[in-house]
Amino acid sequence: MGLIFKVLEICYKCGVKVVTVYAFSIENFNRPRGEVKGLMAMAKVKLEQLVQHGELLDRYGACIRVLGERDLIPDDVLPFVDRAVEMTKQNKEYV
């Protein structure tokens, strides 16, 4: 399913209440254009996986929040970001 799900499950079982995933910093936009495009494509795939397995996020009460400059997120990735945030907004914990 993916490393992030495994890590979240371990954290949950150990009683960790808050997990922050620092996935992409503003400095990463200084990388070569092709590299940024590849990283964004990977983010799109991972966000799509999160959305497809939303029941796991609900089970653990995970709430996804995106911090930073949303206007830098490519138009083809932003719907996946928004969907992940929207589908977990009722949960109480933060991812």
Quick description:
With 95 residues, the chain is mainly alpha-helical. The protein contains four helices and two strands.
Structure characterization notes:
This protein is mainly α and 95 residues long. The chain has one domain: 3-Layer(aba) Sandwich (Undecaprenyl pyrophosphate synthetase). 51% of the residues lie in helices and 4% in strands. The chain has a two-stranded parallel sheet with strand order 1-2. Strand 1 (62-63), helix 4 and strand 2 (93-94) form a beta-alpha-beta unit. Helix 2 runs parallel beside helix 4. The longest helix is centred in the middle third of the chain and has 20 residues, at 33-52. The protein is globular and about 40 Å long. The model has no long low-confidence stretch (mean pLDDT 85).
Annotate the secondary structure layout.
Layout: H1 3-13, H2 33-52, H3 54-59, E1 62-63, H4 78-88, E2 93-94
Parallel strand pairs: 1-2
Family: Belongs to the UPP synthase family.
Keywords: Transferase
Protein name: Alkyl transferase
Characteristics of this structure?
95 residues; mainly alpha; Undecaprenyl pyrophosphate synthetase; two-stranded parallel ribbon; 51% helix; 4% strand; transferase; UPP_synth-like_sf
